[in-house]
Design goal:
Chain lengths: 405, 264
C-alpha cells in the first residue's frame, strides 16, 4: 500500500503505457512501429464521435446491451447477510463479456484498413466472440488455440468453425493459452501489413490493456447508473473473477474514484495456493515481463514461466493485466483466491437458488461473494459481475461431480 | 578496441554464430564454432516462451530447459568459454524475463563476471530501455539493438540511442529460421543503416547456406546464422560438434571470398 493515495485511480496508464511500474511495451522491434501506429489510430478513434456511435449502436442492437442489473433475492436469503446483485453480462450475445471488447477492436481494425483478424483463445470464449464479429463484418479470421485446449473444448472449436474461423491447434510449449498467445504474436510479426491482433483481455503491450479496459468499462458505467436508479446509492462491495482481468476492470474502473466502494478481485486457486497447481498470478506469482507487458506472473526462480491450473480454462493464464498489478500495489483493490472445489460449490449454489447456470469463471466470484455476504449487514450491497453463462462448462462440472451425461 | 570491435575490423565480414545454451554439450559445440572460424559467439538463453523464434530455436529452448538448464548454468558456460577463448567475443541473446528476474543489476554483474561482451534482449525495445540498458552500460556490456524492415527513418535514431557493439538487422518481418529477404532489399536497408550509425551492421534471420552468407557479406559487416546451426544440434546431439565445425568452416570460407563491405 502506498503512503499517499493518488488524486485519481482512473488516470492510468501514463503516456508510455505504464501503470505505475507495470504495463509498458515489451515487444520485439518488428512490432514496435505497429504498436505505436495502433495507439495513434486508437486515440483518433476515441476522439471521433462516429466511432463511439457505431460502437454503442452495435452493443445495443447486436450484443443486447444494456445488460440487466438483477437483485438475487433467494441467494441473498440463503446467504443471510448483504444483498447480492448481479450485473448480467452472461446474457450478452455469445454468452459472456468478451464480445464487448471484440466489437470495439474489430471496428478499430476496419478503421485501420486491416483485412485479416487473428486471436488467441484458451477456453474458446474469446475465440468464439472474435469469430462472431469477423462473421458479422466479413473478415477472415484465424484463431490460435493450444492443442490441449482444442481437445478439452471441442464444442467451442465447432462453434468457431461454424462461424467461419480457421482454428489452428498450437503444439509448441505446453500447448495451452500462453503458447497460443506466443503463436498469435509470431503470426502478427510476420503479417504486420494486413493483420490486426484482437487480444482477448486487458493485457499485452500498450495500448491493449487500456483499450480493452475502456471497451469493457461499459459494464461498470451501466451498472453504476442502474444501481443509483434502483437502490438510490452505490454498492458497498464490487466482486469479479480474474483471469487476465478484463471483466473485473470493466466493472471496477468506473467506480475507482468512489472511495466508499470496496472492490474484490477473485483469482483461481486451483488445488490450493500452497502447491503449484493454481492460476493466482497476483497472490502466488511475482513481477516479470511476458507477452508485451510487465505484470505479475507465475514463474520459477529463473524467470521461466510455469503453467497455471484451474478448473476453469478461462482463468488458467499465467499472467494478469498490468492494471490489476498496479491496483494491488496501490491498495485500491483487494485480491483473494478461490479453489476449484469452492468454485464448484458456488456454481451449484447459483443454479439452485436463482435458476442461473453460471460459467466456472464467475463461479469463483460467487464463492467469494458467499463468504463475504455472511460477514456483512443486511443493509449492505454487493454487486458482482456475472460475466459468463455456464452451458460450455456442463461437461467439466458433470465429470467433477462424477455424473455421466 | 574491444573484443567486439576487433571482430568487426577483420578484412572480411564477421561470422556471428548462434546456438542455445544447454542444448547438448554446449562447451564442445562452442569450441567447434570457434575452430570453424566464427568471429562472434551468440549464446541463446533458454526461455519457456520464445515468441520471436521459429520452430528450430523453439525446439532448442525446450531441449535445453528439459535438460534442466538454469541461469547459473548459462553464466557458467559463458565463464568457461571466456577462460578457454580469451579473445573471442561472446554475447548473450534472450528474452527479458530471465534477464531481469533477480534485477537488472544482478544480471549485468553476473554477465560481466562471466566475460560477456554484449546482450541482445529481444523484447526490450528502446522505449523500455530502463528495464536493463542502464545496468548493462554501467558494467561496460554492449546493449545490442535490433532494427527491422518496419523500423523507419524517423524511428531509427531512437533505436541507435544507447545501443552498442553492433546493430543487428533483422532482414525479414517475421520469426527466426523462416525465408530470407531478397539480397537487393538487404543491400538497400543496410545502406540506410550504415549512413545513420558508425556501429557495424550485422544481418540475420533466414540465413541458412554459405551462398546466402556470402551474398550478405558483400554488403554488411556481419552475418548471423542461428537456426541452421541449432538444427544440427537437434539432429546430431553428441555428434553435433563435427557438423557445426563443418558448416561454420563453409560459411566462413564463403564470407571470406565475398568482397568486404565498405564504410565500416
Amino acid at each position: 500500500m502506498s503512503d499517499t493515495a493518488p488524486n485519481s485511480f482512473k488516470n492510468q496508464p501514463d503516456e508510455r503505457g505504464h501503470f505505475g511500474d507495470f504495463g509498458g511495451r515489451y515487444v520485439a522491434e518488428t512490432l514496435m512501429p505497429l504498436i505505436l501506429d495502433l495507439e495513434r489510430e486508437y486515440r483518433a478513434a476515441q476522439a471521433d464521435p462516429a466511432f463511439a456511435a457505431q460502437f454503442d449502436d452495435l452493443l445495443e442492437h447486436y450484443v443486447g446491451r444494456p445488460s440487466p442489473l438483477y437483485f438475487a433475492e433467494r441467494l441473498t436469503e440463503a446467504l443471510g447477510g448483504a444483498q447480492v446483485w448481479f450485473k448480467r453480462d452472461e446474457l450478452n450475445h455469445t454468452g459472456a463479456h468478451k464480445i464487448n471488447n471484440c466489437i470495439g477492436q474489430i471496428l478499430l481494425a476496419m478503421r485501420m484498413g486491416k483485412t485479416r483478424i487473428i486471436a488467441e483463445t484458451g477456453a474458446g470464449q474469446h475465440g468464439v466472440a472474435t469469430a462472431t464479429v469477423c462473421a458479422r463484418f466479413g473478415l477472415p479470421c484465424v484463431i490460435y488455440m493450444g492443442a490441449e485446449d482444442v481437445k478439452r473444448q471441442s464444442p467451442n472449436v465447432f462453434r468457431m468453425k461454424l462461424l467461419g474461423a480457421e482454428v489452428v491447434p498450437v503444439t509448441s510449449g505446453g500447448a495451452t493459452l500462453k503458447d497460443a498467445m506466443n503463436e498469435g504474436l509470431r503470426d502478427w510479426v510476420a503479417n504486420v501489413h494486413d493483420t490486426f491482433y484482437i487480444i482477448g483481455t486487458a493485457a499485452g503491450p500498450h495500448p491493449y490493456p487500456e483499450m480493452v479496459r475502456n471497451f469493457q468499462s461499459v459494464i461498470g458505467t451501466e451498472a453504476r447508473a442502474q444501481m443509483l436508479k434502483r437502490a438510490g446509492r452505490l454498492p458497498d462491495l464490487l466482486v469479479a473473477c480474474i483471469g487476465g482481468g478484463s471483466n473485473a476492470l470493466g466493472l471496477f474502473h468506473p467506480f475507482l474514484d468512489d472511495a466508499d466502494v470496496k472492490m474484490l478481485g477473485v483469482e483461481a486457486a486451483g488445488h490450493g495456493l500452497d502447491g503449484d497447481e493454481h492460476a493466482a498470478s497476483l497472490l502466488g506469482g511475482a513481477p516479470g515481463v511476458l507477452h508485451g507487458n510487465k505484470t505479475y506472473l507465475l514463474q520459477d526462480e529463473d524467470g521461466q514461466i510455469t503453467d497455471g491450473h484451474s478448473i476453469s480454462a478461462g482463468l488458467d493464464y499465467p499472467g494478469i493485466g498490468p492494471e490489476h498489478a498496479w491496483l494491488k500495489e496501490s491498495g485500491r483493490v483487494e485480491y483473494t483466491a478461490v479453489t476449484d472445489d469452492e468454485a464448484l460449490e458456488g456454481f451449484q449454489l447459483l443454479c439452485r437458488t436463482e435458476g442461473i447456470i453460471p460459467a466456472l469463471e464467475p463461479s469463483h466470484a460467487i464463492a467469494a461473494v458467499a463468504d463475504r455476504a455472511k460477514q456483512m449487514g443486511e443493509d449492505e450491497i454487493i454487486l458482482m459481475n456475472l460475466c459468463g453463462r455456464g452451458d460450455k462448462d456442463i461437461f467439466t462440472v458433470a465429470e467433477k461431480l462424477g455424473v455421466e451425461i | 578496441m574491444t573484443r567486439l570491435s576487433n571482430a568487426f575490423s577483420k578484412p572480411h565480414a564477421a561470422f556471428v554464430a548462434f546456438i542455445t545454451a544447454g542444448d547438448g554439450d554446449t562447451a564442445a559445440n562452442l569450441d567447434a564454432l570457434v575452430a570453424g572460424g566464427a568471429d562472434v559467439i551468440e549464446l541463446g538463453m533458454p526461455f519457456t516462451d520464445p515468441m520471436a523464434d521459429g520452430p528450430a530455436i523453439q525446439a532448442a529452448n525446450l531441449r535445453s530447459l528439459g535438460a534442466g538448464t538454469t541461469t547459473a548454468d548459462v553464466m557458467q558456460i559463458a565463464a568457461d568459454f571466456r577462460a578457454r577463448h580469451p579473445d573471442v567475443p561472446l554475447i548473450l541473446m534472450g528474452y527479458a524475463n530471465p534477464m531481469i528476474r533477480r534485477g537488472p543489476e544482478w544480471f549485468a554483474d553476473a554477465a560481466s563476471k562471466a566475460g560477456v561482451d554484449g546482450v541482445i534482449c529481444v523484447d526490450i525495445p528502446p522505449e523500455e530501455d530502463q528495464a536493463l540498458g542502464p545496468a548493462l552500460r554501467a558494467k561496460g556490456i554492449a546493449p545490442i539493438r535490433l532494427a527491422t524492415p518496419t523500423t523507419d527513418a524517423a524511428r531509427l535514431p531512437q533505436v541507435l540511442e544507447g545501443s552498442g557493439g553492433f546493430l543487428y538487422y533483422v532482414s525479414v518481418a517475421g520469426i527466426t529460421g523462416k525465408q530470407q529477404a531478397a539480397t537487393a532489399a538487404i543491400e538497400e536497408a543496410v545502406g540506410k543503416l550504415k549512413a545513420a550509425t558508425d556501429l557495424p551492421v550485422a544481418v540475420g534471420f533466414g540465413v541458412r547456406t554459405p551462398e546466402q552468407a556470402a551474398a550478405i557479406a558483400a554488403h554488411a559487416d556481419g552475418v548471423v546464422v542461428g537456426s541452421a546451426l541449432v538444427d544440427l544440434c537437434g539432429e546430431f546431439g553428441k555428434d553435433a560438434p563435427a557438423k557445426l565445425q563443418e558448416l561454420t568452416t563453409a560459411m566462413v570460407s564463403a564470407i571470406k571470398q565475398a568482397p568486404k563491405a565498405s564504410g565500416t
